[in-house]
Design goal:
Distance between the termini: 72 Å
Structural class: mainly alpha
Strand order of the largest sheet: 1-2
Order of helices and strands: HEEHHH
Largest sheet: 2 strands, antiparallel
Strand content: 5-15%
Number of strands: 2
Number of helices: 4
């Protein structure tokens, strides 16, 4: 096998992997955008169709293959909060075991009182 043909084969494999990832992302992203309000789960920034590309789907367990149909492993985060979340997760792997337990713990839930707020508006 020549180096050119092995290079072509590798390029094909990489291209196919990217296509598969994009298809998978499109599926769960579309589902999450239908399920959840277009609001960042961390900073509570609201999104419209004009800036929706800046709202991403974060996998709570950091496993992009874990996509339950009820959306329980997803949360919508703006690109900045999503980047921050992944940086915190990565940084926690450098700490000791007690630090890594807190990596998945969030301190803010912008929807915690949503039902009460909706009742007040009625």
């Amino acid at each position: 096998m020549t180096s050119e043909s092995s290079s072509d084969k590798l390029d094909q494999i990489v291209a196919e992997a990217r296509r598969n990832r994009e298809e998978r992302e499109k599926g769960y992203r579309e589902q999450a955008l239908k399920m959840y309000p277009w609001v960042c789960g961390r900073c509570a920034r609201e999104f419209t169709r004009e800036n929706l590309r800046e709202l991403t789907v974060h996998h709570r367990d950091h496993n992009h293959d874990n996509n339950p149909p009820d959306g329980s492993n997803w949360e919508l985060l703006c690109i900045y909060c999503h980047d921050n979340e992944h940086s915190r997760y990565k940084d926690s792997s450098y700490g000791d075991a007690s630090d890594s337990k807190q990596a998945g713990t969030t301190t803010h839930n912008p929807f915690a009182n949503l039902s009460e707020m909706l009742k007040e508006k009625k």
